[in-house]
Amino acid sequence: MNGFPLLRFGALSAILLSPAMSYAAPEPAPPVERLVMLMRHGVRSPLDGEVPHATRTGQPWPRWAAPAEQVTPHGAAALRALAKADRRWFAAAGLVRGTGCLGATVRLWTNSSPRTIASGEAYAAGFSPSCALEVGHRPEGTNDPLFEPLGAHPKTFDADRAIESINRYTHGAEALARRHAVGLKLLEQVLACPAGPCSPVEPSTVQASADGHGIDLKGPIRAASGTAQVLMLQYLEGMPLARVGWGRATPARLEVLGAVHGALFDVFSRPPYMAAFQMAPTVDCITQDLTATTAPKVDVLIGHDTNVAALAAVLGVDVKAPGFATNDPAPGGGIAIALVRAPDGSSAVRLWYRSQSAADMRTARDRTVWTPLRLRGCDEGAEHRCALPRFLQRLADATAPARG
Description:
Blueprint: H1 9-17, E1 34-40, H2 73-92, E2 106-110, H3 114-127, E3 135-136, H4 159-170, H5 173-179, H6 181-191, E4 205-208, E5 215-218, H7 220-236, H8 251-262, H9 265-268, H10 272-291, E6 298-303, H11 305-315, E7 334-341, E8 347-355, H12 358-363, E9 369-373, E10 386-387, H13 388-398
Parallel strand pairs: 1-6, 2-3, 2-6
Antiparallel strand pairs: 1-7, 4-5, 7-8, 8-9, 8-10
Helix pairs in contact: 1-8, 2-3, 6-8, 7-8, 10-11, 10-13
């Protein structure tokens, strides 16, 4: 998270009892002219209040070695491994040399929070171990509208229209909670407090924040989403399985719980009006990267899960990494948009969701999964290309509500 104020049982049983899922190796990298990727920061320690203070457990929470809200040493190691794998893929695609210095070929830009800056530094070290790769960002702690546009208080944001869009998308906060009843019940089993409920109990509501510049969500999803994320982070950090959810949060259960965490984006990132405001500055950057003659060959933007979720919403795609729930963006996972050539020589784009699996992140293994993304209504050939003009128009149309 970047600080927003913030199944049937038979099917669930099959998931919980299934062995670890395997997945295929990534397809060979195709020829690519340019690439821009928006990715989430790496594995971090819990945020202050991410697990609501009123949450009850049967045993104390395990301690983290890293300071609160920061990328951990293991998280940095996983990012270095991720970057090493990315360097191989980018080199095979013809974007960069396989070894040596890169000059201005690659740009890294991160949000201004310490965990995103640290993520950029770890990624740079893994991507270019022999030559320093500059990591750009605004001064630490200042707002960067590229990643936190609502924090810049855009004058055109209308909280009432936002709530209308959220309610149309979710059918209301109570309906959203009901859809995740299985995951919420599973979380209670993992927390195992002496007498439930373990998570704080509040009515489900969505309303404008007090200053009118954002949205406040209350209820079961708000109370449980951060807790579900912290349990996943324990696993990704490499904690002994006996400490991950006190031994009750198996990898299969964590994937189910990830849907509870991902439900938060059904309020803050995925409704069309919210996605438009979350993504308008990023869409401008993507357009520049794909069209300007001065753009770098590779532009890596490192932000938050909310950013990745909003870009997926604007594109109309789902993201899924092995071991994670659908539309629960993985640490380090990102949407890659590549400029390629169609058979007739015209410009087109291809899209992937690039991620590590949860198991590879846990062991900091330099292996990635590149999952092709298909745009409905703009999906040409076996390579799932979209003509560049049509792609850019789709981005403009999806973010039009944020442009007055």
